[in-house]
Amino acid sequence: MRSRLALLACALFVFSLMVLPVGRFSAPSNSASSRAGSLAETAHMQIARASHSSTLLPDGKILIAGGFGGSGTESNPYRSTEIYDPRTGNFQPAANMTIGRSGHTATLLKNGKLLIAGGWTGRYNVRRSAELYDPSTGGFTPTGDMVIERAGSIAALLPDGRVLVAGGEDRSENALASAEIYDPATGKFARTGDMTEPRGQATATALRNGNVLIVGGGSGHYPSQNVYRSAEVYDPATGKFTATGQMTVGRHKHAAVLLANGKVLIVGGSDNRDWHGEYSSAEIYDPATGKFSVTGTMGAARFKLPYAAVLLNNGTVLVAGGSFAEVYDETKGSFSKVEGNLGAARFFASATVLPDGKTLITGGYAESGGGLPSTTGAWIYKP
After folding, report:
1. Looking at the domain assignment, is residue 30 inside a domain?
2. What is the Cα–Cα distance from 85 to 93, expressed in whole angstroms?
3. FRET partner for 283 with CA separation of 20 to 30 A, picked from 18, 121, 246, 363?
4. pLDDT tens, residue by residue, 224-265
5. What is the pTM of this model?
C-alpha cells in the first residue's frame, strides 16, 4: 500500500512539473532588495574625503573636489581633486583648487565649466572666494568673489544660466538669510533678495517652473539651535523669496530630490538634537498646491546626506547616506533596501548618476573606534 502511495505521489509531482509555467523553479529574484538593485565596492579614491563635491562633467567623467579627512579635521580641508573615469573604473589625481574647501557648492554651468564657491577653508575660516574648473584644460581659475562669505550654503542653476547661492553660515557659525546671483557672462556675484529665514544646512531644488524651492535648515548654535519646518520659493523674475507650505517636522542636514513628476522628495535629516534626532521619515512637496505630505518611511534614520540622494534614470530615487542604500518608488510611495552595504554609516558622502544609469557613491565619514574618520571607499550602484 505504501509503495502504491509513493508511486502516486511521484506521478503527481512529475505531472505538476509538466503543467507549471516555465521558470517557476528558477532562483528567487522577487525580493524587495533585488528589485531595488545592488551595491558593490569599486576602486578607491586617492584620498579619504567627506563633505566633498562630486560632479558629472560633460565628457561623462566625475570630478571629486575638496572635503576633509573626518570629523575633527575640518581645519585642514583639501585643495586636491580627482577624476573618476567610468570607462576604466579608476580615480586619477587632477589639478588642485586655488584653496582648500569643504562644505562648498559645486554647480555645473551651461557652458560646461564648474563653479565652486565658498566653503570652510579652516575650522573657523570661511571664504568669499569662488573658482571655475574648465574640463577642456583640466585647471582651476579664480572668478569673482561672493558678496558674503558663506559655507554650508545652497546653490541652484537658474533657467537663464545664472546661479543662485543662498544661506549657509559665516565664520562664527551664524546662519545667513542673504542670497546672491552669479552671472557667468560677467564672472561676478550680485546681491538678490534675502530669504525669509536665516538658514544653514538647508536644501535648494530647482523646480520645473524655473523657481527654486528652499527647505528647512536652521539657525543658532547647538543645543539651542532652531530647526525649521518652513520652506520658501525663490522667483528669479522678481528676485524675491516667498514663504510656502511647512514640512510635517523641522529638518536640517536632510536631502531633497526633484522627482520625474515635478514634485520634490524630502528625506531624513534631524531636529535640533542633531545626532540624537535623526529621522527615517520622508515627505513630498507639491508645487501645484504649495503643500507637504507624508510618504513612506525609510528603513533607517539618516542625516548629513544632502548630496547622497539622487534621481535615477528610471524615475526612482537612490538614498545612499547611511550604512546601506535604499530606493524610493514614487508610484508606490515606499522605500526598498538595496542589496549590499557601505560597510558603515557614511555621513556627508556624495552620489552621482553616471551616463549609463549606474551611480557612483564616494567617501563620507563614519563612527569608528571612537573617531569619525573619512573613507577612500567608493561604490557602484546598479539599478
Report:
1. no
2. 11
3. 363
4. 799 999 999 999 999 999 999 999 999 999 999 999 999 999
5. 0.90
